[in-house]
Amino acid sequence: MAFVFGDFFFLGSVFLNCRVGKTSLMNQYVNKKFSNQYKATIGADFLTKEVQFEDRLFTLQIWDTAGQERFQSLGVAFYRGADCCVLVYDANVMKSFDNLNNWREEFLIQASPSDPDNFPFVVLGNKIDVDGGNSRVVSEKKARAWCASKGNIPYFETSAKDGTNVEEAFQCIAKNALKSGEEEEIYLPDTIDVASSSQQRSSGCEC
């Protein structure tokens, strides 16, 4: 979630959907590591990474939310204050793609952004490496058409395993979060007291 502490801007991004490689994408981007072992996210987890834009240092805080239905009630605690929402689906599982609209609507309801029509989303079609691409059931054309119908959401096809487009996707996510974070009022989590040191602060991405 987005808050400011000292000279560091924390920009929150939330990843949604179930068993589509969200955690692996985060680990590939932040730690340059990949594991074939699947471990379900319980509730939510997050990683941070420092990124630099225009000679300013930012800390991107990436929240990995559980995709299982029984954890959806926890969403509001993690969605509020986010600067960008990342919708991830498995290119080899049609149901995960069909769920994108539900996850998008659920996020907007629970996050309650001040300008829902213009809140930044990014869509990632992950696991394009599986079986050399022969197992995929969601075409790039279909995915791009869906993104276009939702206001030209930026779209990337990724592989958390071999790193394809992971860096490029996160650069876009970070820039969308940065733009949103500068326009929105800063969100200060109740559990962190930074009052004494805090300060004011498409089709495709302009990356």
Automatic annotation (TrEMBL):
It comes from the Eukaryota. Signal peptide: none annotated. One of its GO terms (molecular function) is GTPase activity. Keywords: GTP-binding, Lipoprotein, Membrane, Methylation, Nucleotide-binding, Prenylation, Protein transport, Transport. It is found in: Endomembrane system. InterPro entries: P-loop_NTPase, Small_GTP-bd, Small_GTPase. CDD domains: Rab7. Its main location: membrane. PANTHER family: RAB FAMILY (PTHR47981), RAS-RELATED PROTEIN RABG3F (PTHR47981:SF4). This is Ras-related protein RABG3f isoform X1. It comes from Coffea arabica (Arabian coffee). The lineage of its organism: Eukaryota, Viridiplantae, Streptophyta, Embryophyta, Tracheophyta. The gene is LOC113731298.
